[in-house]
Amino acid sequence: MSTGEGSMSSQPLPFKIGGPAIAIIVTQIIMVVAISMFIHCLRMKKASELRAAVAPPMPSNMIQVWEVDAPTMEKFFLELAQQKPVRFTAQQLCAFTNNYSVTLGSGGFGRVYKGQFTNGVKIAVKVLNRGPNRSIEEQFMAEVGTIGRTHHINLVRLYGFCYDQFMSALVYEFMENGSLDKHLFSENQELKWEKLHEIAIGTAKGIAYLHEECQQRIIHYDIKPGNVLLDENFSPKVADFGLARLCNRDDTHVTVSGYRGTPGYLAPEFMLKNFPITYKCDVYSFGILLFEIVGRRKNTKIGGNSDSLDWFPKQVWEEYEKGELMQLTEACGIEEKDRAKAERMAVVALWCAQDSPEARPPMSIVVKMLEGGVEIMPPPKPFHYLFSVGTDVLKPPTSSGSGSGCTSEGTTSYWFKETTPIMAKYEISVATL
């Protein structure tokens, strides 16, 4: 019995954890976590010091990418929106023009006023006359619908428009030197002929863009010096799209109702009722403009007798036919250094003014011929329509063709032959083996 009791008392009693023991365990866990975090921070610091030693320090003025993205994108979206015409209110136009205080010009369409945006950009505001007929409304829609969707260095830019129950107005970029006719037909003749040559090429490029590079072909219908505006550097921009029309590029002709264009610049096909009108009518008008640049005069002058007309394009053809075109350019006051370019321009004008629309070159070809570097083929006799108005005079010559091919002398077309200018000048031919 005593032995059994002794054995029972020798076994250990269960361990009981009290409050002080729990506090000790928690304290130890916290210390372990703190030591681990200290070691981790120490390692991170050493790694940062190592990267700093290897990589160059960032400039103190460097802007983080996230700081610049937002304003840059906002500016981009704003500029993107500004590519389309803006609709202004009548009150805004009144403020832009200082209550229409400066008039730039006027005509049957209305008046043009000088203005300025709040950011200092100068503008020209064309306020259209409204009447009982729909012609003004049609011109308004033609301008917004055509020039509003085009952007080219040689086309005037349309910033926006205003249309409400009281006003129809168009807001354009301001052109410092006005229209070409004011410089071309003035007595002082401040523009040098070389600058006029550049104006001719720039104008041709603008029309070529309308005809051949837009998603829909744009026919201007009123090409003339008065519709060629000059900026501060006398660079040309085609303007006034009130008669312009959009047409599909695959259309061979468009149907025209009513009278279009300006007398003296109209293609002969307008004289015939229901005759197909193509974009080549702009080419004819541009040809008349070229004649006026060569002669620095209007294409038609009325003599002392009202029945006597001095038509310069016919005179150019007569001198060309006699081989005396160079003498004509001299008589027009063109200096010797510019006469070769003037003679070339006169021949291009004869091509543009052909009776048949198909015989007239596309404007991209006109640009190429004006710029030089190609040999211009002799043009057929134009102006048959002056003596006979009928469809026969507008048919293309039997030898016409717009295709191009290659010969041993170079690339040829109906209007020009490609040659190297220096080789052509010295009559050098390529040797054949």
Automatic annotation (TrEMBL):
This is Rust resistance kinase Lr10-like. The gene is LOC105163673. It holds the Pfam family PK_Tyr_Ser-Thr. Its main location: membrane. ATP binds at residue 126. GO terms for cellular component: membrane. The chain crosses the membrane at residues 20-42. It comes from Sesamum indicum (Oriental sesame). Belongs to the protein kinase superfamily. Residues 98-387 form the Protein kinase domain. It is a single-pass type I membrane protein. It comes from the Eukaryota. It is found in: Membrane. One of its GO terms (molecular function) is ATP binding. InterPro entries: Kinase-like_dom_sf, LRK10/LRL21-25-like, Prot_kinase_dom, Protein_kinase_ATP_BS, Ser-Thr/Tyr_kinase_cat_dom, Ser/Thr_kinase_AS. SUPFAM superfamilies: Protein kinase-like (PK-like). Keywords: ATP-binding, Glycoprotein, Kinase, Membrane, Nucleotide-binding, Serine/threonine-protein kinase, Signal, Transferase, Transmembrane, Transmembrane helix.
